[in-house]
Amino acid sequence: MKPVYKTLLIPFLIVMLFSQISCNNQSTETSDAETSGSDLSVSGHFDSKGKAPSEFTKKILDEARNSLPFSDTRDFEENKKGFIAAMSVRQIMADQGHVTWDMDAYNFIDEQEQYSSIHPSLHRMAKLNQNYGLYEVTPGIYQVRGLDLSQITFIRGKKGWIAYDVLVSAETARAAWKLLQEHVGEGLPISTVIYSHNHGDHWGGVRGLITDEDVSSGRVQVIAPDGFMDHLVSENVFAGNAMNRRMFYQYGLLLPRSEYGYVTQGLGHAVSAGSVGLIAPTKLITKPIEEVMVDGVRMIFQLTPGTEAPAEMNTYFPDLKALWMAENVQHGMHNIYTLRGAPVRDALRWSKYINETLYLFGDKAEVMFASHHWPRWGNERIREVLRDARDAYAHLNNQVLHHANQGVTINQIHNVYAPPQSLQKSAWHSRDYHGSAENNARAVIQRFLGYWDGNPTNLISLSPEESAPLYVEMMGGSKKILDKGKELIAEGKYKLATEILNRLVLAEPDNQNAKDLLADAFEQLGYQQENPGLRNSFLAAAYELRNDIPTSAIPNSSSPDVIRVMTTGQFLDFLAIRMDGRKTQGMKYGINLITPDNGEKYAVELSNETMTNIQGYLLPDPDLTITIKRKDLEKAMMGLKTLADMIKDGTAKTEGDPSILAKIGSAIVNFDLRFPIMPGTRIRGSQASPTVDAYSAGGLGRNSPE
Fold first, then answer.
1. CA gap 602, 22 in Å, rounded
2. What would the pLDDT profile of 336-349 be if each residue is shown by its tens digit?
3. What pLDDT does 670 receive?
4. 698 pLDDT exceeds 50?
5. Distance CA 235, CA 562 (A)
6. Do 614 and 602 meet the contact criterion of CB atoms below 8 Å apart?
7. Which of 13, 213, 472, 608 is such that its CA lies 20 to 30 A from the CA of 94?
């Protein structure tokens, strides 16, 4: 019998669990200029087909060097302030034996003052992200920075330490805690853990600091904003496999750390690759403004739902005059639309909450810190950054809609909207270090008007691979397109080249010359990007076009802690998404699911090629009733044991016809994380050794942790 319940993929955890790859620079072969259309072969590139920056790319980067406010070095001064001690360990090992965090992978960042393959602004942020150690924010508040994508904060309480946002992995959180104890911890325990919001880089490392017994005994409380648990699961599950695959591009998961590949992720260097856990909150902040005494420390929480995360909160410490901005204000514009995929955020709402913070606490705070980057000191500086952040998000919302109300469409706005020049010329903290103006502009229109640009041609359009052959035919065939593509690339017109070469690759996905030429254009566009997600996406796509999809072991991403907080209804909904409705034609079944240990019951119906469920009801005449404890059902949800086996051994009780499980199970699909994004790309050499570097010639991905 095929099990109905199979392993659930939790998408954000894939990023956390993939091992970081730091490939050594490798000598490369000379590319065929006839194939590529440009002879820019370069020694030291990780890809044998990789190219050096063109004269056009160098010119764009030189213009940025000459026009951006590099004379403003306040960020570097603030970044060093409060330094106490460096982390002496450069590689943090995972409990499973692999490397969780490798700081030496980023040594190349400081080896040269500038690179012709890295945007100078991105290189600047990479240098700032090189901090690696313990810092004092203000007496009583300390941060350990540079061990993960996010930063961990420790606040001295009456009985012990309050840990605010606890990184991605237990191993990095544990290392941060050890460093604190070596210098200022005084041997005091953790008394409280606070999660500022529901994204995984703010709660995943909790088990490196505390245990379930710490919480159940009352020794440690865990605080989070209202809605934390619901949004933790719901924001990322249903389109999880697609999100995972797109993360390979946005986060450059397999790009080697090098001047030609991955440089930094902007918010921090990268996501650690250790053990992800979750301990549920024991206290939720539910009022819009709520003052709470936390281990003797007075805190005023400001809920900011629907901003950077669906459940998020800022915090003001009135006795310390310290303002915590979670991830609502950091050093750069954030995502309104994230390339991995997620519900579009509300830029105007975001702006209004920042404004509320400014008016509530802006005239009082003397230091402002957050879950990424470094603090700002001085009331004038804090108000400057808050005002600029407020204006940046409001300008984005208002000016995009200003253009939209005059007919500018979702397919044009990214070439029309421009952030305010007053911020671009003087405010590093409003630049595109995580979100990009182009994608954020499109997101605003998507939020208000949706995907359609108003042209009926695009209302029920052909799929790209269906329309591409007509374009190729009308352009005179592949040779003419290749010739024109080489000409455009030689002129530095890379976007125009991608327009025609992408059509050719869609029409002729096995045309390697076309894929190589498109990759050449993508690579130059990648070098030119200030935004890490855009750079990573262009470079990752270029590699896959040239070499196919690197293979790596698929991690077991079903964190038991996350599975436990999923509702049974959410799991059933995701199961319905995994079911191929076409394989259920003619099926009509009713199933009652009862979990007596938590008193829940669900009516589940399969009809019209879809499966639905409702909590709190039972069907009067079901085809099958399954009674199983929720704690046992979780084993099936995690893929540790099949439902069929639990029925066989008596763990699950049934009434009716259990054979219908096999019929439904035959329609359940295991999503493959490595589906193609670029036309004509395939999973490469799945039988080869998974320990070979993904980016060595003919190689595969490194082993990833389970």
1. 48
2. 999 998 889 999 99
3. 86
4. no
5. 13
6. yes
7. 213
518 pLDDT tier (thresholds 50, 70, 90): very high
Query: Closest Cα to residue 584, out of 643, 645, 669?
Result: 669
DSSP H stretches of helix in 145-239: 170-183, 212-216, 228-234
Q: How many CA atoms lie within 13 A of 138 on its CB side?
A: 17
Nearest alpha-carbon partner for 535 in 120, 133, 235: 120
Q: What are phi and psi of 358, to 5 degrees?
A: -60, -45
| Spatial distance between the Cα atoms of 545 and 522, rounded to a whole number of angstroms | 10
Q: Can you read off the two tokens belonging to residue 494?
A: 């890379």
Say yes or no to pLDDT of 32 above 70: no
Q: Give the Cα separation of 214 and 191 in Å (integer).
A: 9
Helix %, strand %, coil % for the chain, to 5? Answer: 40, 15, 45
Q: Output the pLDDT for position 685.
A: 61
Task: Flag the least confident range among 19-33, 275-289, 356-370.
Answer: 19-33
Per-residue confidence band for 552, with pLDDT thresholds at 50, 70 and 90: low
Q: Taking the model in full, what pTM does it have?
A: 0.89
Q: Which amino acid is at 594?
A: I
Phi, psi of 191 (to 5 degrees): -105, -30
Q: How confident is the model over 403-429, as a mean pLDDT?
A: 94
Sequence-distant (≥ 6) Cβ neighbours of residue 182 within 8 angstroms: 85
pLDDT at residue 207 is higher than 90: yes
Token look-up 């990479």 returns 126
Residue 203 to residues 65, 95, 163, 194, 643, Cα–Cα distance (Å) = 38, 18, 10, 9, 30
Kindly give, in sequence order, each residue whose CB lies less than 8 Å from that of residue 266, ignoring residues fewer than 6 positions away. Answer: 122, 125, 332, 433, 434, 531, 532, 533
In the numeric block, which tokens belong to residue 353? 């909450």
User: DSSP secondary structure string, 624-683?
Assistant: EEEE--HHHHHHHHTTSS-HHHHHHTTSSEEEE-TTHHHHHHTTB----TT--SSTT--B
Which DSSP letter does residue 414 get?
Answer: G
CB under 8 A, 24+ apart: contacts of 448-451: 448/401, 448/404, 449/404, 449/410, 451/410
Radius of gyration of the chain (CA): 26
SS3 (DSSP) at 454: coil
The residue assigned the tokens 């010329």 is 425
Q: Identify whether the C-beta of residue 366 lies closer than 8 Å to the C-beta of residue 321.
A: yes
- Residue 431 DSSP SS3: coil
On the question of pLDDT at 19 being above 60, the answer is no
Half-sphere exposure of 345 (CA within 13 A, CB side): 30
Joined tokens for residue 40: 């820019």
CB atoms within 10 A of CB 394: 17
Q: Note the pLDDT of residue 629.
A: 96
172 DSSP 8-state letter: H
Q: Are 19 and 702 in contact (CB under 8 A)?
A: yes
Q: Which residue has the tokens 């939720």?
A: 284
CA nearest to 674, candidates 566, 539, 551: 551
Please enumerate in sequence order all residues whose Cβ is within 8 A of that of 367, keeping only pairs 6 or more positions apart, or say none: 137, 138, 141, 320, 321, 322, 323, 375, 376, 377, 382
Q: Which residue has the tokens 């405010």?
A: 427
Sign of CA dihedral 240, 245, 251, 257: positive
CB 540 within 8 A of CB 526: no
Q: What are phi and psi of 397, to 5 degrees?
A: -65, -50
**Tokens read off for 254:** 């397999």
3-state secondary structure of 339: coil
Cβ contact 107:121 at 8 Å: no
